[in-house]
């Protein structure tokens, strides 16, 4: 944990005999106390480095002998489904208190609870049998003899301020095509209760009970109808957020709707369109937030980005491939790092590879949905038309009703992705091929003297730095590639003095702490793949406090905690799979965000640029690239910022040479190994 040093009086510290003493930290405190006794001037507070050497979790990839439905990451729930595979539960489980034996809410008839249909993290669903009023032969609607009753405890997440958010979603989507109707809702005892249509088996149940196979014709019908259902839901301003086989249910067996598809469980549904303005919700990324089911979630959900229509369609594409092939390439990962490994595998798996044993329409659909932009409106008609050549011409004999596409009057078979020649071809996002790139960032500023060096060996580093120092230049940026160094020195840093250390450690804690004592602050840092690091510390920075963290994974939770304490990210570096993040107070930023991706996050960066953010720090491992973007407190005269990606250091690139000749662009470099766009 960071140790906050100040001038206040402290009590005696009780030493734990089982805890080793950090001699360097102890010596620092003694020196500070001695200095404070001699010098009456105030001593500036600083934070001792928080270095966390966390061991990498053991990851095992195992074969699954038995297919089971995946659990939902945030709010798993299966509502309204009469799934044969979920009925074999102990009788004392459903009858155990505090669930009531009978339910009556919101003017409904009285129902007696019977079998449990499903159990999630925040609620449970039972069969409810009507025991008062009505017609004993009525099977659907508010007076149905058999209904699904969903309970959610008043203390569960989302119910702190009243009924669960799912209620509001059902109110908005009431009557939407393919969404089951809620007939009654209210509170009974400690539970919020919904009474809804009883449905039949889920697609997962059908697949599992059919020797874990499903015909191409059946899956194509599912594709057509599910796209129609999602289109209607999206037109109401909502995305589902958890599309998967377990959440698609057929109508009750023996009813007129037994071949009709329904999409259930709206617990993770969210608005993609603002209810007041009618505009698309703002883009954001929170790498510590995941919503959905790991197996089927889109990569943007894994990365913590705001949900939009593209995410539902990507999850649907994975669902269709699973039903056809019986397995997805990322199944089998275990451990705490499962989500990271699954997302990495999804990003590295091209549509061609994923759909190599599927008919062409499924590959085309996959290619289309993974290329969708955050706020792009999907072409649902085109997506549906892809599957025309697979399903039979007579809708009456199809295994799944496809009324949704027919009702809106799609001209089936006439729309393909190749029809519109006037459309610009999209760049393919996921090629599945790794690439190493230099990312250069140009910031507009007044002309100044600037010098760069690259492919510098350890033994020649001091020669270049000393020469630059003699000419009045200070290091503004450092980077490393293949254990060779690159650095930029210029006359516009505002620094008064500078020191650096080339160390075999990542990072050298004792050296940094000693320089902190002399009022130097970390202004640039880089790590090499052999574990060494180059740390540059300067006087004349605007910083008042500083802290850093070294960890085996990107430390977003720590960054978020420090943001709340008034710190901002000012430098980042990597060495192998390890991250080092430096955060400082007084950095001059009013707000800051992180873009974390397995690719160069072009779309996210452009979204941030439009809202006044500019890139202020970058770093990357062989797996991930992180970009920190900030809003300066003082608006610069020229806010221009450009990026350039090249396979080698960009000295011969025309854009690089033009900027260097003009001397009005400040350049930074970072090594980024990413999946090629």
UniProtKB/TrEMBL annotation:
Keywords tagged on the record: ATP-binding, Kinase, Nucleotide-binding, Transferase
Keyword Kinase: yes
The UniProt record lists the keyword Cytoplasm: no
Biased composition (Basic and acidic residues): 58-77
PROSITE patterns: PROTEIN_KINASE_ATP, PROTEIN_KINASE_DOM, PROTEIN_KINASE_ST
Residues reported to bind ATP: 150
InterPro entries to which the protein is assigned, alphabetical: CK1_Ser-Thr_kinase, DUF7477, Kinase-like_dom_sf, Prot_kinase_dom, Protein_kinase_ATP_BS, Ser/Thr_kinase_AS
Record-linked SUPFAM superfamilies: Protein kinase-like (PK-like)
Pfam families cross-referenced by the UniProt entry: DUF7477, Pkinase
Domain of life: Eukaryota
Region listing for Disordered, in residue ranges: 1-32, 55-85
Family recorded in the similarity comment: Belongs to the protein kinase superfamily. CK1 Ser/Thr protein kinase family. Casein kinase I subfamily.
Descriptive protein name: non-specific serine/threonine protein kinase
């Amino acid at each position: 944990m960071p140790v906050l040093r100040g001038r206040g009086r402290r009590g005696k510290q009780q030493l734990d005999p089982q805890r080793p003493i950090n001699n360097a930290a102890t010596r620092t405190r003694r020196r500070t106390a001695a200095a404070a006794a001699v010098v009456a001037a105030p001593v500036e507070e600083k934070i001792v480095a928080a270095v966390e050497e966390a061991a990498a979790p053991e990851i095992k990839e195992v074969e699954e002998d038995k297919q089971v439905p995946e659990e939902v990451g945030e709010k798993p729930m299966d509502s309204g489904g009469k799934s044969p595979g979920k009925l074999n539960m102990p009788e004392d489980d459903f009858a155990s208190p505090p669930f009531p034996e009978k339910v009556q809410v919101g003017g409904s008839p009285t129902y007696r609870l019977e079998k449990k249909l499903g159990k999630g993290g925040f609620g449970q669903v039972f069969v409810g049998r009507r025991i008062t009023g009505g017609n004993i032969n009525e099977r659907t609607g508010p007076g149905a003899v058999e209904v699904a009753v969903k309970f959610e405890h008043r203390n569960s997440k989302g119910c702190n301020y009243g009924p669960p958010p799912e209620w509001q979603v059902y109110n908005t989507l009431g009557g939407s095509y393919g969404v089951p109707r809620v007939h009654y809702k209210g509170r009974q005892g400690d539970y919020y209760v919904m009474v809804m249509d009883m449905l039949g088996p889920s697609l997962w149940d059908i697949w599992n009970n059919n020797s874990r196979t499903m015909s191409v014709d059946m899956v194509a019908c599912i594709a057509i109808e599910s796209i129609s259902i999602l289109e209607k839901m999206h037109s109401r301003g909502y995305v589902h957020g958890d599309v998967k086989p377990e959440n698609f249910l057929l109508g009750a067996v023996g009813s007129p709707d037994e071949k009709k598809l329904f999409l259930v469980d709206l617990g993770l549904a969210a608005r993609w369109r603002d209810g007041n303005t009618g505009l698309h919700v703002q883009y954001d990324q929170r790498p510590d937030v995941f919503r959905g089911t790991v197996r089927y979630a889109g990569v943007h959900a894994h990365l913590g980005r705001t949900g939009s229509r593209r995410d539902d369609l990507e999850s649907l594409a994975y669902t269709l491939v699973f039903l056809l092939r019986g397995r997805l390439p990322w199944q089998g990962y275990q451990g705490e790092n499962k989500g990271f490994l699954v997302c990495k595998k999804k990003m590295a798996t091209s549509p061609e590879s994923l759909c190599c044993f599927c008919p062409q329409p499924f590959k085309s659909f996959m290619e289309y949905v993974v290329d969708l932009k955050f706020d792009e409106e999907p072409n649902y008609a085109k997506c549906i038309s892809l599957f025309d050549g697979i399903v039979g011409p007579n809708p009456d004999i199809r295994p799944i009703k496809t009324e949704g596409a027919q009702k809106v009057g799609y001209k089936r078979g006439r729309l393909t992705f190749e029809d519109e020649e006037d459309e610009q071809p999209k760049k393919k996002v996921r090629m599945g091929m790794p690439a190493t790139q230099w990312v250069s960032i140009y910031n507009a500023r007044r002309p100044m003297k600037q010098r760069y060096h690259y492919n510098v060996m350890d033994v020649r580093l001091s020669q270049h730095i000393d020469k630059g120092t003699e000419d009045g230049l200070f290091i503004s940026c450092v980077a490393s590639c293949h254990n060779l160094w690159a650095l930029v020195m210029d006359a516009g840093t505002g620094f008064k003095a500078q020191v650096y250390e080339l160390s075999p450690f990542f990072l050298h804690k004792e050296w940094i702490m000693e320089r902190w004592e002399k009022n130097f602050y970390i202004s640039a840092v880089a790590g090499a793949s052999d574990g060494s690091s180059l740390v540059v510390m300067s006087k004349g920075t605007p910083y008042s406090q500083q802290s850093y963290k070294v960890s085996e994974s990107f430390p977003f939770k720590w960054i978020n905690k420090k943001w709340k304490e008034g710190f901002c990210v000012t430098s980042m570096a990597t060495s192998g799979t390890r991250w080092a993040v430096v955060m400082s107070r007084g950095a001059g930023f009013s707000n800051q965000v992180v873009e974390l991706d397995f690719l160069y996050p072009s779309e996210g960066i452009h979204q941030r640029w439009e809202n006044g953010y500019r890139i202020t720090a970058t770093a990357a491992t062989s797996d991930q690239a992180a970009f920190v973007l900030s809003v300066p407190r003082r608006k610069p005269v020229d806010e221009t910022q450009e990026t350039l990606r090249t396979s080698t250091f960009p000295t011969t690139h025309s854009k690089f040479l033009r900027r260097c000749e003009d001397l009005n662009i400040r350049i930074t470099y970072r090594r980024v190994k990413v999946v090629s766009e």
